[in-house]
Amino acid sequence: MVPCHPLALLLLTSSGTSNYTPGFPGGGIIAWIVCYKSRRSPIGGWLMFYYWQLYGGILLTAIFFVAAFQSYVPESFDDAGLYHLFLLSTLPILLIFAIQVVVSTMLISVRSWDLLKLLRWVLLAQLVACSIAGVIDAQKFPDNLFFDVWDAAGPAVWSLYLFRSKRVKHVFRTCDWDEAVEKFHPLSPSTAT
After folding, report:
1. Using one digit for the tens of pLDDT, what is the confidence trace for 129-159?
2. Distance of alpha carbon 48 from alpha carbon 37, whole angstroms
3. Rounded to an integer, what distance in angstroms lies between the CA atom of residue 68 and that of residue 55?
4. What is the chain's Cα-based Rg?
């Protein structure tokens, strides 16, 4: 599992907005409680947090897209070349995010290793799209550069998690989480009876 200090995670998720975490006050506390309580479930703990961020990201992406819709209209640009560069720096990230949502949602009910490998490739494609957007934005839209880095952080972290996590291997590869859970999260003697 990817190591992360719980306090740092709580601070990162309790304020601000991103494509990956609902950004309302107390959001981090709620996310931590829900993910902690579900840690013995196959889709629990950090994996539950991935889905928390993913589905929260849908809402935030929709809100930001509607709020900035005028930016996607050609009339907002004096130069058609800039408009095309803008689309090249934004649309692939949005499309790959939609693919990530579909693949991740399928993965909840169809727990297959092949589908998990597809999700890893989708996350890596999202990193590539964020890198391309960063190169374009550094030259033409420097105000958007922060968002490129911010958008790349989620896929980078979750790619590492999906490659390294023992839970992920037990849930999707060996399909033996029900037996393995005792090794990772043993019941305390008071709750075992």
Report:
1. 999 999 999 999 999 999 899 899 999 999 9
2. 10
3. 20
4. 19
